[in-house]
Amino acid sequence: MTRQVHALFRLRGAAMTLAAALPLLSAGIAHAAQDWPSRPVRIVVPYGPGGAVDVATRKMAQMLSTQTGQSFIVENKPGATGTIGVSQVARAAPDGYTLVANDTTYSLLPHIFKQLPFDPAKDLQPVSAFVFAPMALAVSNDSPYRTLDDLIAQARAKPGMITYGSGGPGTTPHFAAEGLALATNVKFMHVPFKGAAEATQAVLGKVIEFQFASTTGVMGAVQGDKLRLLAVSGDKRLAVLPDVPTFAQAGVKDFGVVNWTGLWAPKDTPPQVMERLQREVAKAMASEEMKTFATKMGAEPRAADAAEFTRILADSGVMWGNVARNIGYDAK
Q: DSSP strand E in 193-244: where?
């Protein structure tokens, strides 16, 4: 028998072995997906601790741990407007054991970076969004600015001198503040920090004069009489802070930015895992504990499944793209 024939038989045998093994491999993957979670799940928060995404994600992780009987561990991986942490998860194994949390800033990324270390539309898949919170303009409790009009008037008198902080260039608070500047025809000075919590500390320490933040991230300081909110986004006042006007009531129309927290999984995560995750997030948000948590944070206690979350991301991308172009920040 020739050497070529021997080689042909070896190749045919290898192909038959592989063909026989594939159903077993597929069955093993399906079984592993059905057993999820059988070990701890890691949720990467791509910002520093203490900010809105971190606070909401830690509460959700606590609920998921209780519901599934398995640990959901939050890890902070800040840097580069969240892209460092997100890119780590984009490269992770698609097995449901590594997730990433983010907020509406995720929709901003394609507009502020010409190149990203991952493809937001292809490398990750939306799982669910939860804790829909308005954006608020916060000052220290002893700030001389008692109303939004006070702050805007000072910004007009001192163009570019009134300082505000954010978790970094291109984050939702950064764009929200610049959107307010456009709407009121003033100019602020942006001071970026490593995370929203650092910006809050800078407001408290009189390093900067105000910040935009999700109510989830600052409500503790507000209820502790350390911060004061001058206005909140949305079409109605918060039940927990009935004296704080909406931006429309304070004279700034069409300022309806809402910040949500969401979870993403690497592309090709098994459908069974995605469906289980969505069910568990929805179950958590339907609980009295999470409803109370969200309400106290001034947020809407609901969950959006993957389909609705995908639509939210598309709408957010259009909205923030318009803001980016108007402030000359569009990377495209």
A: 210-214, 227-232
Q: Give residue-wise pLDDT tens across range 131-145.
A: 999 999 999 999 999
Q: Compute the distance between CA of residue 86 and CA of residue 102 in angstroms, rounded to an integer.
A: 8
> What are the structural domains, with CATH classification, of the chain?
41-132+258-326 (3.40.190.150), 134-232 (3.40.190.10)
Evaluate whether 156 touches 36 at the Cβ level (below 8 Å): no
Answer whether residue 29 shows pLDDT above 80: no
Confidence band, pLDDT 50/70/90 cuts, at residue 23: low
Torsion of CA 55, 111, 208, 146, to 10 degrees: -80
Q: Which residues contact 48 (CB under 8 A, 6 or more apart)?
A: 54, 76, 78, 167, 194, 195, 196, 197, 198
Q: How far is residue 106 from each of residues 86, 118, 119, measured CA to CA in Å?
A: 9, 12, 11
Beta bridge pairs of residue 191: 165
Alpha-carbon distance of 140 to 211, in angstroms, equals 10
SS3 113: coil
**Separation of alpha carbons 174 and 271, rounded Å:** 36
Residue 224 neighbours by CB distance under 10 Å = 9
For the segment 266-292, what is each residue's pLDDT rounded down to a tens digit? 999 999 999 999 999 999 999 999 999
> Among 35, 22, 37, which Cα is nearest to 73's?
37
Q: Which residues contact 259 (CB under 8 A, 6 or more apart)?
A: 52, 103, 104, 132, 133, 134, 135, 172, 214, 216
Residue 294 makes CB contacts below 8 A (sequence gap 6+) with 131, 133, 285, 300, 301
List pLDDT tens digits, range 228-271: 999 999 888 999 999 999 999 999 987 778 899 999 999 999 99
DSSP strand pairing (124-140 vs 227-232): antiparallel
Integer CA distances (angstroms), 243 to 141, 151, 250, 311, 322, in order: 14, 18, 12, 33, 32
